[in-house]
Design brief:
single chain, 331 residues, alpha/beta, inorganic pyrophosphatase (n-terminal core), Diaminopimelate Epimerase, Chain A, domain 1, 2 domains, six-stranded mixed β-sheet, five-stranded parallel β-sheet, 13 helices, 11 strands, 42% helix
């Protein structure tokens, strides 16, 4: 029997799998990447040989777990894996499209804007590792949901702030155009944190990892505060970052910070790319968590969820159209 854990390289994906593997410790092959590497099931298929009939070399005893990865964006690869006979557990909160009707598929999908994969896994495990779910929810900028769950966990104000910061820093680490942009490769960071059933124990035992993330986050956010503003209206704001590693790392969490500061406005953070296109992170207003996915899917390489979405390569000639649509949708 082979087990493959396929997970997004952000806080939500890492914390979801950390809960799952603490509940069921076993050896698995990890398939992950930067946060925007969303077609991870294709990456899994690239690792696997085909059998003599051309099918993926998986069988009924093999298990594939997919966490915090859009089913809609991975449908062809998922269908090939299901056709092989492997058992698939799919847990996510992004747009799913039509969910395949297969007895070997256990799909736990909820696209509510106040839900993330870590919270879904917490429900499946009946709160066994709820503190990790709190970290994942904070990382996904779901402060209200994270605080609501934390209210039942007997945490001090200091401990709650520690979990919030940990979630933000793990999430920050996932952004980048490639693994070379990151402080820690997501698989390595997962391996470090998943040794602990309680994130507060991780913070106590592995201060070096936490402080590396904290230092990087604080330095990059200071640079981002000087970003050029492209749009500033009652309903939306957009900022431009340069084509540099620090900017690619900070784009998502900078967008979260802007959303928290002005919860009535939509925000976009655009990062220049070497080919002249823009990497785009969109945050819907916190008091109207809708339509970010619909907006981004209007443009090539766009996708995401209702509250937060992105475009991997926005053509420069569509920049004005994008900024206008950002404002129109939230007016």
């Amino acid at each position: 029997m082979a087990v493959y854990d396929v997970f997004n390289g952000d806080a939500d994906g890492i914390c979801a799998l950390t809960q799952l593997r603490n509940a069921e410790p076993l050896e698995s092959e990890l398939v992950t990447g930067v946060k925007r590497d969303i077609k991870l099931l294709d990456n899994l298929l690239d690792k696997l040989p085909n059998n003599v009939s051309g099918k993926v070399a998986l069988g009924g005893d093999d298990q594939v777990n997919v966490l915090d990865v859009s089913m809609d964006k991975n449908k062809p690869a998922l269908l090939r894996i299901l056709d092989s006979g492997a058992q698939v557990f799919y847990c996510d909160h992004h747009v799913a499209g039509d969910i395949p009707n297969a007895s070997s598929l256990d799909a736990l999908i909820n696209t509510s804007p106040d839900i993330c994969t870590s919270l879904l896994i917490n429900g499946r495990l009946q709160g066994a590792y709820a503190r990790w779910a709190v970290v994942g929810a904070f990382g996904d900028n779901l402060h209200r949901s994270a605080s609501a769950l934390a209210g039942s966990l007997n945490l001090s104000d200091i401990e709650l702030k520690q979990l919030e910061n940990l979630g933000i820093y793990i999430n920050y680490n996932g952004y980048g155009a490639s693994l070379d942009d990151l402080h820690f490769k997501p698989a390595e960071l997962y391996t470090r944190v998943s040794q602990y059933d309680d994130p507060l124990r991780f913070l106590n035992d592995d201060r070096q990892t936490f402080q590396s993330l904290e230092h990087g986050y604080e330095e990059d956010m200071l640079r981002a505060a000087k970003a050029e503003q492209l749009r500033d209206t009652t309903h939306s704001a957009a900022f431009l970052l340069p084509d540099e590693k620090w900017a690619r790392r900070v784009s998502g969490v900078y967008g979260n910070d802007l959303a928290n500061q002005s919860p009535h406005r939509a925000h976009a953070v655009l990062t220049e790319r070497p080919d002249g296109t823009y990497l785009v992170s969109v945050r819907a207003p916190l008091n109207n968590k809708t339509a970010a996915d619909e907006l981004c899917m209007e443009f090539p390489t766009g996708g995401g969820r209702k509250a937060a979405a992105g475009i991997n390569a926005l053509p420069a000639n569509l920049l004005g159209q994008f900024l206008d649509r950002l404002d129109e949708i939230y007016t």
